[in-house]
Amino acid sequence: MAEAILGGMNGTATNQWIDPPEPPDPDTLERLRAVCHAEPRIASAWVTGSRFTRPDGTCVDSTAIALVFDPPLEDVRNSDMESRADHWAIIDELEAAAPIASGHRSWLYVDEAIIAAKAKHCRLIYSRVAPNRGGTADPST
């Protein structure tokens, strides 16, 4: 079932969560974890997938990194220039850590409720605090 439906003059496009088509390799995961660890507002990061279906029925699958921020980032559409610059600085760091080898990738800003609802398509790659243990989680174990 589609997660988002985008209507337009030329038909309807949909987007849904899927398993990641091209998960990051171990070296890329380590670089992503380092960026997440250096950014105190990133609470967790998850690798997932996204399928965008155009109105003509063609699809584009992409690997996505879903980020949970604490506190949540302000919606960049409603933020001032300083907040927007801060937002793009985080994305620039993540992009540098995980350059796209092929295909497409997206960055998703989500909350824990969305992750819980889409859990079957998400794999934890970073968590600032391990549940019930304290400290930095190591999702590779």
Write the layout of secondary structure elements.
Blueprint: E1 4-8, E2 11-18, H1 26-38, E3 42-53, E4 59-69, H2 81-97, E5 105-110, H3 112-117, E6 123-127
Commentary on this structure:
The chain has 141 residues and is α+β, with helices and mostly antiparallel strands. It has one domain (4-127). 26% of the residues lie in helices and 33% in strands. It is built from three helices and six strands; from the N terminus they run ββαββαβαβ. It has helices spanning 26-38, 81-97, 112-117; strands at 4-8, 11-18, 42-53, 59-69, 105-110, 123-127. Strands 1, 2, 3, 4, 5 and 6 form a six-stranded mixed beta sheet that branches. The longest helix has 17 residues, at 81-97. The termini are far apart. The model is unreliable at 132-138 (pLDDT under 50).
Based on CA atoms alone, the radius of gyration comes out at: 16 Å
Total strand segments: 6
**Which structural class fits the helix and strand makeup?**
alpha+beta
Q: State the distance separating the first and last CA atoms.
A: 32 Å
Shape: globular
By DSSP (H or I, 4+ residues per run), the number of helices equals 3
* pLDDT < 50 runs, ≥5 residues: 132-138
Percent helix: 25-40%
- How much is the average pLDDT? 82
Number of domains: 1
**Major sheet details:** 6 strands, mixed
Run of helices and strands: EEHEEHEHE
What key phrases describe this protein's structure?
141 residues; alpha+beta; 6-stranded mixed beta sheet; 6 strands; 33% strand
Quick structural gist:
Helix content is 26%, strand content 33%.
